[in-house]
Structure formats: C-alpha cells, structure tokens
Specification:
Blueprint (H helix, E strand, L loop, with lengths): L2 H8 L9 H8 L3 H43 L4 H13 L7 H11 L8 H13 L8 H8 L4 H9 L10 H12 L1 H11 L3 H8 L9 E13 L4 E13 L3 E7 L6 E8 L3 E7 L9 E6 L5 E4 L3 H44 L5 H11 L1
Antiparallel strand pairs: 1-2, 1-7, 2-3, 3-4, 5-6, 6-7
Amino acid sequence: MSKTSNEELVKPEKETPLTNENVVKEVKVPEEPVKKHVEEKTESSQEESSNASTKVIQDNKGNDNKNQKRSLFGRNSSDKKEFNKQLKFYVGGIAESDYFRNKKEEFNKGEILDINQYFVKGILKKEFKNGKLSVDGIENRLDELFGLDVKSMYELSEKKVDTSSIKTQDDLSDYLLKEYGEKRAEESRKNADKNYRINSLFEKYGVDLEGAYFFKCSIEERRSSTFYNTDRRNLDTAYVALFDDYIGIIKESVFLKSDMGMRKVFFKTVSGIDYDTSGKLGMSNSLFIRMHSGEPVQLKFISEKDVAEVQAKFEKYMAQKDTPNTVQINQETSNADELLKYAELYKQGILTEEEFEAKKKELL
C-alpha cells in the first residue's frame, strides 16, 4: 500500500466556514407559528384586562347599591331618623305614648279596644320600609288601623303581604275570606269588634254588661304564700266592669292568655280608693282599692277617664248607702208625731176608739 493512499484515508474533511447565512439556515424558525402565538397571548391579556375592568365596574355598582340601601334604611338615613321620631310620638317606645293613649280613649268610648301597640308599630315599620308609607302619612294610617284587627294585619305583614291597600275591616275580611276562608274572616271580625271580647268573657259567668261601664287594664295583687312563707306578686290582664254595688274583674294570664276566673270587689268591703298618677318609674298610672281586710287591689295602666268612672261609682254607692237610713229615721219621726196627734184627738173624744186603733195600725 502506498503512502499516498494512506494519507487519503486519514485526511480530514474540509471544514465549512461559519457564516451568518449558515447560522440562519440551521436555526431558522417558521415565522407563522410565532406570530400566531404572540397574537393569542395578546388577545388573552386584553380579555383578562377587560374582565378585570368589568369586575371592578360591577363591584363598584354593587357597592353603590349597598350604599344607596344603607342611605335609605340605615342608621344614618335622615328619612329613617325622622320616621322613628314620629313613630315614637304617635305610638311610643317601650310604653305607649300620650298621643296613642289619648287616641285609644277617643276610639274606646267606654268599650274595650284591644289594640296592641307592638302590632301597630310592626305594621307601620313594614309599610315604611316597602315605600308604601311616608312620614307625613303616619297619623292618618294610625286612624285607619284603630278600626282594624291589627293582630291579623301584623300577621299578614310578616308574610310579606302588602297591607297598605287594606283601609277598612271590610277590606281585611274580604282578603282573609279569599285567602283563608270564612272561619278566619269571621275570627278577624270578632277581634275588631270592641264589645265582643269582654261580652263573651262576662257572659261565661252569667253577668249581663248592658248599661255597665267597662274597660281593660292590668291588675296587681299581693298575696301571702304559706308554702313559701313569702308575699307573692301577681300581675295579670284585667277586664273590669262597674256595677251599682261591686266591681267585676275577670283576670287573664298575660303569657298564657287563659281565663283565670272572675273576682267581685263589693263596695261595702272597700275603705277607700287612691289614685297614683306617676306609677312605678313613672311608666303607669295606678288605682289602689283599699279593702277593710287590709288586702289592696291595684289596677295599673289605667286611664284617667277610667279612674274617674270608678271613683264616681264608689261615691254614688256611699251616698246611696247613707240616704235610706236618713229617710227611714225621718219617716219614723214623722209617724210618731202623727200618732201623738191622733192620740190627742182620741183623748178629746174627737176620734172613736175604733178610728184611733185603725190609724195606729196604719202608722205602725
């Protein structure tokens, strides 16, 4: 083998010079996919930015709605503040306002008006919140509610019923008849009847209220308990009726609303009647009926009108109690004088014995 052929066998290949053209040829990437990738990324960024902007706008709109709602019904709402101010004046807070009590007396007229302050407040608040009642309309709406079964009205308002369209008891009865039937409508009519409740209670005990003055209040009684060796204090609802010689009181449990029986306070057992205009903590007026036995009967949350009726009835009884004795004494004195005259005439012979005995028998 020759030297030349060996050199040809081991001779390295000729290296290709490194140029820009060669580099471009080797690493060249198709332009179309890159462009498409960049466009997709750009569109995705724009979409995310758009969604973020939309979300910010929606969040701002939601906050605006919340702020608007707070402005209308929140603590800082001037309308709500004014409404609460007027509601306290017309109806009251914890206790009934003077306006509410006077309005009850105006509508009562010696009858029972079982209208619950808290039901009335609940109805007015619901109608105001729903935009159906303005601050200026509270007084007129209150007049309408006094002629309605407010318990049924309150129950309807709690069930999201628009009660603002119910103006009279006939409106309420028609609605209840349509939605719940005749029985519910009749029950509502009875609740709105100022006489029905107390008449039915006293009829149970065979007492006729015709011509009697009656009202509703609370009764507080203190009685000694032998079992506990303490004085027990009872506070119950009282339906009171005034008669010529006694006060009839039907007690009803405040919580259970159950009939607790009838009590008769006879005027002959009463030593005196006192009226406390302040009551405990200045929240109520109280009428104290002092008994000869020392056991007091206290009527609370009683109006001045009702107090005047009780006092007038007691004074009338005391006056009539004294009058018959005076008449009887005067009559006996007059008869004795007449008998002496006839006796003198008999002695003078003017009257016969038979005539004198007849006159004597007549006078005695």
